[in-house]
Write a structure and sequence with these properties.
By secondary structure, the protein is α/β, with parallel strands linked by helices. The protein folds into two domains: 2-102, K Homology domain, type 1 (Ribosomal Protein S8, Chain: A, domain 1, 2-Layer Sandwich), CATH 3.30.1370; 108-327, 3-Layer(aba) Sandwich (Rossmann fold), CATH 3.40.50. The protein has eleven helices and twelve strands. It has helices at 24-28, 33-42, 59-77, 84-96, 120-131, 145-158, 185-203, 206-215, 246-253, 280-288, 308-327; strands spanning 2-7, 12-17, 45-49, 52-57, 108-109, 114-115, 134-138, 164-169, 218-222, 234-238, 261-266, 294-298. The strands form three sheets. Strands 9-8-10-11-7-12 form a six-stranded parallel sheet, sandwiched between helices.
């Protein structure tokens, strides 16, 4: 691939020349839908002819589009596929100046897919998951906190680095008052554990999940069931940790046993605790911030990888909250 650039009064025009024409249909997408997406996200105009692609836009926008396309082309040369989410991720990386090509070394291998970071923040999170025995991931909905943690747990289980995965979260609220709900205990708690099931089904075939749950290799349980246990040789995830009390959080983090890793995820802005009650997640951030071996990762709206509208919604709420805090000073 080679590049040329020309600068005019109102726009930069960059031209990219590709050395492997066979990759271009995949790079451009059916009916050029990948190019259309890049045009929307980077605010540029793209024009393809033969093995050349012209990029027209402001200097900054053209540079972002250029880096995006170069990263996607490198993915294809490595034998990786491109989905629409990869387009979004490549633009996200390009805006921050980070390398967005991605490779096998960046991904988490599971039975059904290789899961890769889709933002610089997620890349930092994945590095922490690989390096630390206890990681706290704080961030808004859609930033990949739980999904990436489950992917890492599945990968470690498949490679024999842990013997079990234990997935937990507070059921309903910190008090875990389940008695009024119909059904047995499993039927009571399953709706609150559904996000964990959904992530698992993205990583493993359904029959493997059922078999591993039956054998105890995968355990999904409410937080109340963790009391008194020592969790050894396993990968443990506590989801929705903002809805724990300080006492529950202290109980949970001290379950960590030999050969285990623990990930605690939560969105501090979506606490369901009764008014005035301190969240166990906030308490842990204050208490454990200087403890060696514990890593805190803070994801933001820039790491949200759901629908574009979710990012804008998160940013709107964040702006409102900042304004309220400023007005109350």
């Amino acid at each position: 691939m080679s590049d040329t650039a020309a600068t005019g009064r109102s726009a930069d025009v960059r031209r990219m020349t590709f050395d492997d024409n066979a990759l271009l249909p995949v790079l451009y997408g059916n009916h050029d839908r990948h190019l259309v997406r890049i045009e929307q996200l980077a605010n540029v105009q793209l024009s393809a002819r033969g093995n050349q692609l012209a990029i027209a836009g402001s200097a900054d926008d053209a540079a972002i589009a250029h880096k995006t396309i170069a990263a996607l082309y490198e993915r294809l040369k490595r034998g990786l596929s491109i989905e629409m989410a990869d387009i979004d991720a490549a633009v996200r990386f390009a805006r921050t100046g980070a390398d967005g090509a991605g490779g096998d070394e960046d991904g988490i291998r599971t039975r059904r897919r290789t899961v890769q970071a889709r933002s610089p923040g997620q890349r930092t999170y994945l590095a922490a998951l690989r390096e630390r025995d206890m990681v706290f991931a704080l961030g808004p909905a859609g930033s990949g906190k739980t999904y990436l943690a489950v992917a890492m747990g599945v990968s470690l289980l498949l490679t024999g680095k842990v013997e079990r995965i234990v997935l937990s979260r507070p059921a309903v609220e910190a008090g875990e008052r389940l008695g009024f709900l119909p059904g047995d205990m499993k039927e009571k708690i399953d709706p609150y554990l559904r996000p964990l099931y959904d992530a698992l089904h993205d990583m493993l075939p359904a029959e493997q999940i059922a078999n591993r749950m039956e054998s105890g290799e995968i355990e999904i349980a409410p937080l109340a069931f963790m009391r008194g246990r020592t969790l050894a040789h396993c990968f443990v995830i506590l989801d929705e940790a903002q809805n724990t009390t300080p006492m529950q959080m202290r109980m949970f983090v001290t379950r960590l046993g030999e050969g285990s890793r623990m990930v605690i995820t939560g969105d501090p802005s979506q606490t369901d605790l009764p008014g005035g009650q301190r969240s166990g997640l906030a308490d842990a951030v204050d208490t454990l911030k200087d403890v060696e071996g514990v890593r805190f990762i803070r994801l933001t709206s820039k790491d949200v990888v759901r629908h574009d509208l979710v990012t804008r919604i998160v940013e709107a709420y964040d702006a409102r909250d900042k304004k309220n805090k400023s007005d109350n000073r």
